[in-house]
Amino acid sequence: MERYVTGIVQNHRHKMLAIGTIPDHIHILIGYNVNQLIPDLVEEIKTSSNKLIKEKRLSKFKFEWQKGYGAFTHSHSQIDLVVKYILSQEEHHKKRSFREEYFEILEKNEVQFKDEYVFEFFNGIDGWD
User: Fewer CB within 10 Å, N- or C-terminus of the chain?
Assistant: First the structure.
């Protein structure tokens, strides 16, 4: 999945800096090509990978992406830190859930939000091997 998503990102002339997938979400850090809107890139990633997962039967569960997503910017000086963070997701979420992490990021960066616009979170995936 990571190679497939990387291909989508690079085909749209963005530079993949880091990608990390775990069962309930994905983190991507890119060098952004301003000629494509972020919502369009996210839609392409979700639509194409959803089709691949269903056609190749890559999940034993009914698969679909959640409706929302989060997009954040980082300064050039933070790239190494963000790459390390993305590549350590599995270990990171042993200590803190994705939900806890996401809200901490919003608070830390003083991002105001309305609950009705925050995507749904999953507490766990039963039967995940």
Answer: C
Query: Would you say residue 128 lies in a domain?
Result: no
Rounded Cα distance between 32 and 12, Å, is 10
Q: How far apart are CA 36 and CA 15, in angstroms?
A: 13
What span, in angstroms and rounded, lies between the C-alpha atoms of 6 and 28?
9
User: Are 16 and 86 in contact, with CB atoms under 8 Å apart?
Assistant: no
Burial-class residue 112 by CB neighbours within 10 Å (0-12, 13-18, 19+). exposed
Give the C-alpha separation, 102 to 100, whole Å.
6
- Give the domain range for residue 72: 2-117
Number of domains in the chain: 1
Of residues 37, 6, 41, the one with CA closest to residue 21: 6
**Is there a contact between 119 and 69 (Cβ–Cβ < 8 Å)?**
yes
Q: Which residues of the chain have pLDDT under 50?
A: 125-129
